[in-house]
Amino acid sequence: MKKSLIAMAAAITVTGIGVNSVSAATYKVQEGDSLWSISHNEGTTVDHLKELNNLSSDIILPNQTLALDAQGAEEIYKVKAGDSLWDIARAYNVTIKQLKEWNKLDSETIHPGQELHIQVKNKVGDKSEPQSETTQTTAPVQSVKAQPVQTNDEQAGKEMTVTATAYTASCNGCSGVTATGIDLNKNPNQKVIAVDPKVIPLGSKVHVEGYGTAIAGDTGGAIKGNKIDLFMPSKSDASKFGVRSVKIKILN
Q1: Which backbone phi and psi does 175 adopt, to 5 degrees?
Q2: Which of these, 204, 234, 237, 240, is most buried using a 10 Å CB contact count?
């Protein structure tokens, strides 16, 4: 999918150090995009995108502009003897790849006195003196709190009992497009379930007792934990289903 990334920088002067303000990268939503597909392509999460853009739901519209990263600052770091890109990346909580991209480096070779541009929105503590790997005796920074994301492969074969409800796309104000971009109005026979992505990864194939094999292709504000919502083409079918406990198996 062709992406439309925009990155802008505006220079300001700060006494004592050279710092530039850096605006967040953005993405222009295209037809068929979803928060899930954008987060997957950009290496982030749906929750992170919603938080950055103050979204209360997963609904996005074509030509809408989404921030991909928080606004931060750029700091100039002067390389010292014994430094490596690995040391600096770890100290500033960034990746070696990012350091190379920001500084247009073709290799990981750096030299004392070299100035590196670092976007420090994730900076933790004082990084003016990062230690080299050979002399480091304690971790230079505290680890950043992060929640592990379970992948489809890790979940494959898992069986569980969940609370199931049903929903339909033909309701007032409903777009009919799922969080992963499936148009349910155009595909009324598609078996789709709404899930909590922390429990069942989006994009998984899931066998649901009494429903069949479905795609975990949607989310919902009330779908948290061991709950799923089954898509049904008609309101009457959804109403008849009610609330049930069903057994499911994540296939992949």
Answers
A1: -80, -25
A2: 204
